[in-house]
Structure formats: structure tokens, C-alpha cells
Automatic annotation (TrEMBL):
This is NADH:flavin oxidoreductase. Residues 2-360 form the NADH:flavin oxidoreductase/NADH oxidase N-terminal domain. Transmembrane segments: none annotated. It comes from Sphingobium rhizovicinum. Its cofactor is [4Fe-4S] cluster; FMN. Pfam families: Oxidored_FMN (PF00724).
Length: 374
């Protein structure tokens, strides 16, 4: 079933979820990256959202909890030329592609990345609580020391960096941009009360903590075009705490998202570990459903499509490919979400969409797939 939202016209409702790949030495996507995305477009994925792509800021990417050291960037002649070729390949295959604009923020290990001398960007100078962190002790040792909070001028520089990179995305032919506002990274660290304890205009209540994200969206709108699609990914869970919540109630969720709608977000991407998990007590509706109900905007659901285990569990427990598309279809028919994002299943098998459509067997789950660009 096609999907249309403004200038975004998708041949079906399947979205390739962003997944960190680390095959871009020096920030330049390797030759393998082009084939990796093109093969998914050739196999009928409606929309590809790329791995996180570093914005034009010295501390945007470095080593973080998922490894790192070879994340792509969206600035500089060589990187932009390579992205232009990647976009052209996806378009030639009939697909659409959007970069996920990324700044690691507090998650970046200080002293790593393409500009190791640049200080990591932390709204309040803190990484967040450590008692529930699902990360290694070695990583925690490197990030737990408090740093200087961001100054107002530094926050302005970050907003400008996102805007420059969004303009670059439009210039090389991408079909929109997606903002990574989830999982404890920079944008999310402003949204979450445990990493944003500021008492100026960038902090306060849940609506006030959304100001940074709101100003990013406004700046991107000014740097691109009124009809250039903007997707905003957010989550409740963080790398610091898988049980964390930005919003404890639907009312708080609405207070956080309403300013983003006004600023110009077109589609919300509600990142959950399991897409069917109830977002709030008293109802079985997932997070994407609540977002759609409260904002009226199209939503993307994600989490566990095609697999028997959530992401974190799949690293430690036996995991198999499974067909849970009946659940997807039921939730979509109920109006919970408009698009469904598929991550690991598409990493395991580039032809997952066409094979599921045609009733063919898909490739099995294997951990070594994370180290390849098949």
C-alpha cells in the first residue's frame, strides 16, 4: 500500500530503520555502503533511513557504546560526493533515502572521533545516572566524569551545525532528513530530565526541555524548504537506562511533542524495543499510536519486526526470524501507525520485504551479520 505525505511518495509502508554500520573510514562512506543501500531499494523497501550520519560539528561522532570510529559525516566535498552517488543509486532502483542526522552528545567517549580534542557536548555536563546503564564498566569509566555544561553560544553552534548538514542533504538529493532525537544522544539529552538539569531557557519542565529540538527543526526548515520532509525519532528508553521515560503520561508526551509539530516536524519515528509494547498503563496502544493520536501526524513504529527477540536480548539469547506481520497489519488497520520500520531483519536479508511478500524463506539471524555489508 503506497504512502504519501507532501513530497514524500512511498511505494509501500516498509521503512529501513537506521542502524549503525561503521564502514565509513574518515567519515567517507565506503564503496560497500552504496551497494548496501541500493540492494535494499532494489528489493522494494519503500524508504531507507540511513545509519546515523555525523552533522557538521567537531564532536558529532566518536567512539560510543555501539563501537564506532568509522561513522559517516554529511559535510566536506568528498563525503558529499559519495552521498550524491549513493542517493542516485537508490533513486535508480526506485527507492527513496533520507539521512539520519546524528550527534552523539553525552554518549561520545571524550577524546575520540575525527576531532579528538573537541569536548563532548553535554547540556548539563553530565552523562546521566549509571546504576541502570547497559554498558561496559570500561565505557562508563571514560564518560562518567562531569564536564562543563554547554554555553548558550555553544548551543547556537550545534543548531547551526544541524542546519548546515540538512542543507547539504537537500543539495545532494536526499528526499528529506531524519533527526536522531532518541536513545540518550544529544537531542535526547536535552529532552531527558536526568541529563538536562539546566535552569535557563534550555531547561525546566518537559515542554521547556524540548526547546533545543524545536530550534533545530526551525533552523532546518529555514535552511531547506517548507516542503522538505523532516522526520523526528525519539524514544523513552536510553542507553543509560532501558526503563527510562521522558513522558510518564500521555499529557506529558503531548506537552513534549506539540511544540515540535508547530516547529515543522512532518513524521514522528517512535523508537521502541518491541513495537507492540503498551506505552502507558491502562491501554494496549504502543508509543507510535499515542503519538499519532496526540499530534495527528503520521508515525513510524519500530521494534522487533521479523525477529523473536528485541535488540539487546538478541546479542545474548537465541534469536530466530519470525513472521509477525499479521500484528503489524492489525495495528496499522487500527490506525496506530502509518509506516513500519524494519532493522535487523533487513540487515540479515536485503530481500526481506520481497521474500515476505512472496512467502519465501528469509536468511536466518546471525550475529556475524553486524560485521558485514551484505
Amino acid at each position: 500500500m503506497p504512502f504519501t505525505m507532501g513530497s514524500l511518495r512511498l511505494r509501500n509502508r516498509f521503512v529501513m530503520a537506521p542502524m549503525t554500520r561503521n564502514f565509513s573510514p574518515g567519515g567517507i562512506p565506503s564503496d560497500g555502503v552504496a551497494g548496501y543501500y541500493r540492494r535494499r531499494a532494489e528489493a522494494d523497501v519503500g524508504l531507507i533511513i540511513t545509519e546515523g550520519v555525523g552533522v557538521d560539528h567537531p564532536a558529532a561522532v566518536g567512539r560510543e557504546t555501539m563501537g564506532g570510529g568509522a561513522s559517516p559525516v554529511l559535510h566536506g566535498d568528498e563525503a558529499l560526493a559519495r552521498w550524491r552517488d549513493i542517493v542516485a543509486g537508490v533513486h535508480a532502483a526506485g527507492g527513496l533515502i533520507i539521512p539520519q542526522l546524528w550527534h552523539q552528545g553525552v554518549i561520545r567517549v571524550p577524546g575520540t572521533g575525527y576531532h579528538p580534542d573537541a569536548p563532548s557536548a553535554r547540556p548539563s555536563g553530565i552523562w546521566g545516572p549509571t546504576d541502570k546503564a547497559m554498558v561496559s564498566p570500561d565505557y562508563l569509566e571514560q564518560v562518567r566524569t562531569p564536564t562543563a555544561p554547554l554555553t548558550d553560544s555553544e548551543i547556537g553552534d550545534l543548531i547551526a551545525a544541524f542546519a548546515r548538514s540538512a542543507a547539504n542533504a537537500k543539495a545532494v538529493g536526499f528526499d528529506g532528513v531524519a533527526l536522531h532525537g532518541a536513545h540518550g544522544y544529544l537531542i535526547d539529552s536535552f529532552l531527558w530530565r536526568h541529563t538536562n538539569v539546566r535552569d535557563d531557557r534550555w531547561g525546566g519542565g518537559i515542554a521547556e526541555r524540548a526547546r533545543f529540538a524545536v530550534e533545530l527543526v526551525r533552523a532546518i526548515r529555514a535552511a531547506t524548504a517548507p516542503d522538505f520532509p523532516v522526520i523526528f525519532r525519539f524514544s523513552q528508553w536510553k542507553l543509560q537506562d532501558y526503563e527510562a521515560r521522558n513522558a510518564e503520561t500521555p499529557a506529558e508526551l503531548e506537552a513534549m511533542l506539540a511544540p515540535l509539530v508547530e516547529a515543522g516536524v512532518d513524521i514522528f519515528d517512535a523508537s521502541t524495543r518491541i513495537f507492540t509494547a503498551p506505552a502507558f498503563e491502562g491501554a494496549d496502544m504502543g508509543l507510535a499510536g499515542w503519538v499519532r493520536k496526540l499530534t495527528g501526524k503520521p508515525t513510524i513504529a519500530v521494534g522487533g519486526v521479523g525477529l523473536s527477540k528485541d535488540l539487546q536480548s538478541s546479542f545474548a539469547q537465541p534469536t530466530v526470524m519470525t513472521d509477525n506481520l499479521a500484528l503489524v497489519a492489525d495495528r496499522m488497520a487500527r490506525g496506530e501507525f502509518d509506516l513500519i520500520a524494519v532493522g535487523r531483519a533487513l540487515l540479515m536479508d536485503a530481500q526481506w520485504v520481497t521474500k515476505m511478500r512472496d512467502g519465501e524463506a528469509v536468511n536466518p539471524f546471525r550475529l556475524d551479520a553486524y560485521a558485514t555489508l551484505d
